[in-house]
Amino acid sequence: MLKLLKVLSLCVVAVLVFGLALCSKTSFLLLVTLSNEGTKTLPDGQKPVALLCIGCVLIASSLLLLLKSVWKACHKSSKMPDKRTVALVLFFEFLVAMGAAILTIVAMPHLDIVTNVTILNGVAVLSTLLQVITQCTAKQRNRFLVPSITAFLLILLGYVLFLLLYITKDPTDTRRNIWAGLAVGGSFLMSFNWWENYFKLISENRQTSEKSNPGFLEVLCIDVKECQNVLHILSSLLRIAVTAGVLGAYVPLDKMDWAIVTSIPSRETRIIGIIIGVQLISSALCHWFSLVACKMHAMRRCFILPLYLASLAAMVLFVVPVIVFHQNYRNSLNGTQSSNFRGYCNDVVDARNQSLSGNVFPDLVRDVTHTLCFLDLSRIYDIGLLTGSAACWCIGLVLATLHLWFLSLFRIQRTQDLFVRRLYEGAFIEQSLLLNTRFDIQTTEKQKQFKSLDPVKVFLCATMWHETPDEMMNILISIFRLDKYRPKKEGEAGDVTFEGHIFFDDAFTDVAGSRGAHVNQYAEMLVNIIAEVYSIFLNINNDLFTKKQQIPDQTIVATPYGGRLVVTMPHGNTLTVHYKNKKLIRHKKRWSQVMYLYYLLGWKVSTKYFKRWGKGEEDVEVKNEFEREKKNTYILALDGDTDFTPAAVMLLIDRLKLYPQVGAACGRIHPTGSGPVVWYQKFEYAVGHWLHKTAEHVFGCVFCSPGCFSLFRAEALMDDNVMKKYTAVSSQAQHYIQYDQGEDRWLCTLLLKQGWRVEYNAASDAHTNAPEDFKEFYNQRRRWGPSTMANMVDLLGCATVISKKNTSISKVYMLYQLISLVASILAPSTVILMIAGSLTVLLDVHQNVSLVLAVIPPAIFLGASFRIKADTQILVAAILSILYAFLMMVSAITIIGTMVKDQTILTPSSLFLIFLALFYVITALLHPQEIGLVFYGFIYIICIPSAYLLLSIYSMVNMNNVSWGTRETAPAARDQAASQTKAEKVRSTIARFFSRSKCCRRLCLTDAADERILSRDVPSEEPEPRPQNTIVEEAGRPEEQPRRSTTVAPPHQNWVAQLQSLSNDMNLSEDKLDEEEGQFFRELTSKYLQPVPEDKGKQEIMINKLRELRNKMTFVYFIINAFWLVVTFTLQLLDSSVFIRVPKINFDLEYTGEYIFIDPVGFMFILSFALLVVIQFFGMLYHRMSTLIHYVAFLSTEPMSTKQNHHQPIRKIVDGESEDFDDLSFQGDFRRRFNTGTLV
């Protein structure tokens, strides 16, 4: 399937590049032909129109570049160039603009069609000369020196043959000789266009050979690169001015009148309009799809070859019809007259009158023939010179661009590194694309040694607390799968190296009678699962009867923060599990992140450079190495249940490797689980990623990179006010909301403020468990909602500063985010209005009556929520959600019935329903591998009142509750057979009851045994531990007492012995921590991670502050919604005087004579919503194309060994095998999970 996707994508791109280049070239040549004297399709008096269109072709790309450069100069920093740089650049641009205008406007309309098709290839003359100079200055044997010299000589020979043909044809025809000379001169001036491609290499070669200070060329190239925006603005304006000047001067000099432009007949206007429209659109699209082809790593198949063939196809399209028409004329004579080409021109081509109607194709063919009539094509001399010059130019261009067949590209190639200039030439589309592509000096070796990017180091950092066995299995399989994908080999430096770390929160518990703390049951479970996964990956390729390999001994280390388990995975990479003791180091997720940030970036990355500085090594060299390592060190933030594929990680790495300004990148998160709550989240996540994240990525920056699967650059994290500020302790009420409730969003806020870009990669998939319970879902969103709003307000509050510091964020983009924030704030009142509309249709009452009825339930729920407990609020919300869901279903059915009854779709409700359904269906079709999620859209729509009204009320009212809200479950018992859950106790009671009946005894005993087997993973009923984030409101609750051991003496004296006794398959040997590293952790703990002592007085004060903040924010939030409802209510009372009248149409789109009345506020809201949706839709289209490009490039550049790993045969376990093969069946399940994974 993936190979088919790749093949289809490349075929489509190749056809588009070829077809668009052909359309661009033929349409431009048609404009040139219509400008020729004597053509009949466009009379001589109307030639200025065709010349004006040629001028538009020349300046179109300059105009686009001008607009783009002005936009970048306004919203990004632009450096002013040196005066000498400006003078030289404008001098070259003047020559190029003058040459292009002279060649296309003055000379080419007087040349024959064959010459016009091929002389455009002659613009490579100076490029070939500069290629020779560049390769000679390299002072090494080059592969393409001879082809470049040959190309230069062939193009010169083509000019000689061309001049010989035109001058010797009629030496007395001065005008034709002048046109031929202008054509040669114009094409030579035009060849200065690509000087930047070679000057940079010449300067580098000079500096390398002479080892001198940077000269004029070096300074020029650096200045041109740094001041692109300003130089492009100036050069675009100059080109437009020069083209307009040449065009404006030539028309009166050639005795033509501009006044004819305003009085062109409709037929000629239509012909000219179609040709110029096709030319402009096809040129721009050809340039864009050529970029796509190169970035897909299909330069040969989809870029070079189609552009070569476009010139040949254009020649065929023009010459073959001429031959066919001439042959038809000869056949019509039946041999009664001589039928040479000159006679055909005199009798048919030149003697015809202008056709005012009918098919325009014959006239265009005869106009093309007219350009050849001055030649005697019956003579071998004319044909030889004509074909010789054309062949020399074509072969010269092929040889001049021969190096492109061997050009090396990165997996993600930046446009500025692929094409030297942003500008394309619409009149020379294939020549400009080929010659504008980066030129590299190729050595005489069979394959040039391509300088790859610096190798990168990736730290995988997962945080754990109370994950289930399946969740632990997911993350461990993913890490071991990555170890297999990129094995670590001694003595070999790979492009990517990995190191896994798991930070286990609150892993220790006190056991009476032991000498030290013990790890809890979750920590034990993790060790057992590591042993299981290790064994399976170690023996994954073994046959059925092969003896299993023994797991090597691993290391266990006592540390100042608790303990550490160091595992060397089967393919050499390491996995370290850090067990944290909350009595020794601060716990909770954010502090685990602070711990691994300072440990990995401070100790593992920075310390060695500080030691070198201390030894007196050269500061500049050490600093450069340090900066390089920071740039190429990444941290992959993971949750304890994340399931991902190696390809997903590599796709994120690609973004950071090629784009230095990217500080973080996130992937596509897929929620897993079952039940209606998860189904809702599947569609919600899909919409969020399909539309919101893609729009943020395309138009600005992603504002939140989720902590469950995101890649961060060390250089960005170590920037000022990022990692340091992330360690800030919550000291104010709003800090608990912004810092602790959404730590991933706050970290991204810090990165954005420092000018870093955050991106989204849709091809990088990861799966994580989603809340399946309604209560857990509400508690999760209770954290996310206020923290999202707090961070958004923080960013909008300093929008001016951010837009100046962050080049990816503009004020326009911040306005878009402001509109999105306002829309989210007004979501409750919008839902109430929607419910009111539904009640109006269902109950057939006035709109104001339905509005009052719609406000009553949420108002009562809001008032009661301040008095009742959170669990009761969730129960009431669940009941109301069900009622609202039924109301939404009935409303949808009623709207459909109303459309059928009234025979119209032009009502606000029907338009909204149809538009929403079509929008989601079309969006899903653009994501074919996720199209099944559209069926969950029904649940999403009927749950809108619950998610946007009731959940908003619950989140705002419980803003003062800063608990984590999820995973607050009791630990799973290890000896499952010895303990029973409530369900088992109930089952046992029923079994004892039925055991009195002999006929039921066997059945009940069997069921009870089955129940115990199925419920092994069900947690036992034990005292519930404290949540991961402190519930400030529970300060007054007595602290939990540690559980008392039922045994007199513990089986193990400390946690080391406890873990060593867990598994016979994996032996754990104790080791000691390096003293310097231990000192580092002690200093880190004392400075940032010291456990916070419980202070009842401070907690009470913070409880009051949080409650006060809750009251203020809730009042502001709901008063805004109330204001919106009051405005709507008032306008509905005045519906007779204030409204917008819209004509009503039926299903046949015919006017019915009736009108629909819409209040202006509602209309503006709908218009704003539609605008946001349209913006997001176009952002999604662009992002889908860029994702496809990246993914196809990934498939094209993935190592073959990696591809083989993804397609290993899987042995299936057939039903009926004995229980002795259970372990093999488990291994087969691992293999299936190892080789599967969605990529796009």
Automatic annotation (TrEMBL):
Chief location: membrane
GO MF annotation: an example: chitin synthase activity
Annotated EC: 2.4.1.16
Places the protein is found: Cell membrane
Key word Transmembrane helix present: yes
Key word Glycosyltransferase present: yes
GO cellular component, one term: plasma membrane
Pfam families: Chitin_synth_2 (PF03142)
Catalytic activity: [(1->4)-N-acetyl-beta-D-glucosaminyl](n) + UDP-N-acetyl-alpha-D-glucosamine = [(1->4)-N-acetyl-beta-D-glucosaminyl](n+1) + UDP + H(+)
Sequence segments annotated as region (Disordered): 1015-1051
Gene Ontology biological process: chitin biosynthetic process
Transmembrane regions listed in the UniProt entry: 47-67, 88-107, 113-132, 144-166, 178-195, 230-251, 271-291, 303-325, 383-406, 814-842, 874-897, 909-927, 933-957, 1115-1134, 1161-1182
Compositionally biased tracts (Basic and acidic residues): 1015-1025, 1034-1043
Entry keyword set: Cell membrane, Coiled coil, Glycoprotein, Glycosyltransferase, Membrane, Transferase, Transmembrane, Transmembrane helix
InterPro entries referenced in this protein's UniProt entry, alphabetically: Chitin_synth, Nucleotide-diphossugar_trans
Membrane topology qualifier: Multi-pass membrane protein
Family per record: Belongs to the chitin synthase family. Class IV subfamily.
Protein name: chitin synthase
Organism lineage string: Eukaryota, Metazoa, Chordata, Craniata, Vertebrata
